[in-house]
Amino acid sequence: MSKSIRFLFALAIAFSLSGALSFAQSGEAVYKAKCQSCHGAAGVPNPGIAKIMGVKPITAAAVKTTSEAEMIKATANGMGKMQPFKGKISDAEIKSSVQYFRSLAK
Ligand code: HEC
C-alpha cells in the first residue's frame, strides 16, 4: 500500500514538473522574442540601437562584471530606456532569458 502511494506521489511530481517545464519558455526562446530586438542575437546591439537606446554589448567590461542577480533586477525593474519586464513575463522567464544573455558572453 505505502509503496503504491509513493509511486503515485512520484508520478504526480513528475507530471507537475514536466507541465511546469513545457509551460515556461526556454531562456533562448524568451530572449529571441523579447530581448533580441534591442540586445542583438549575439548579445551585441546593432550600432543604430546602441546609439539611440544606449544598449551596451554583453562583451562590454561593465556588463561582463555585472552579476546574474543584478541583471535579473535590472531586467525586472528596468534600466535606462529598457522598460521593466516584471509582470510582463514571469520571474522564471526573466531569469532564464538573463541566463541566456549571459551565456552569449562566452
Ligand atoms: C527596448 C529595448 C530593450 C529590450 C527589448 C530589452 N532591453 Fe535590456 N537593456 C536595454 C537598455 C537601454 C539597457 C540599459 C543599458 C545601460 O544603461 O547600460 C538594458 C540593460 C539590460 C541589462 C543590464 C546590463 C547592461 O546591458 O547594461 C540586462 C541584463 C538586460 N538589459 C537584459 C535584457 C533582457 C533579458 C531582456 C528581455 C527579457 C531585455 N534586456 C530587453 C534595452 C532593452
Structure description:
- This protein has 106 residues and is mainly α.
- It has a single domain (25-103), classed as Orthogonal Bundle (Cytochrome Bc1 Complex, Chain D, domain 2).
- The chain has six helices and no strands.
- The chain is elongated.
- Heme C binds next to helix 2, helix 5 and helix 6.
Which terms would index this structure?
65% helix; mainly alpha; 106 residues; Cytochrome Bc1 Complex, Chain D, domain 2; binds heme C
CATH architecture name: Orthogonal Bundle
Task: Determine the CATH topology.
Answer: Cytochrome Bc1 Complex, Chain D, domain 2
The radius of gyration computed from the alpha-carbon positions, rounded to a whole number of angstroms, is: 18 Å
CATH class: Mainly Alpha
How many beta-strand runs?
0
- Helix and strand element order: HHHHHH
Which percent range describes the beta-strand content?
under 5%
Please outline the major beta sheet: none
- Compute the number of helices: 6
**Which small molecules are bound?**
heme C
Quaternary state of the chains = single chain
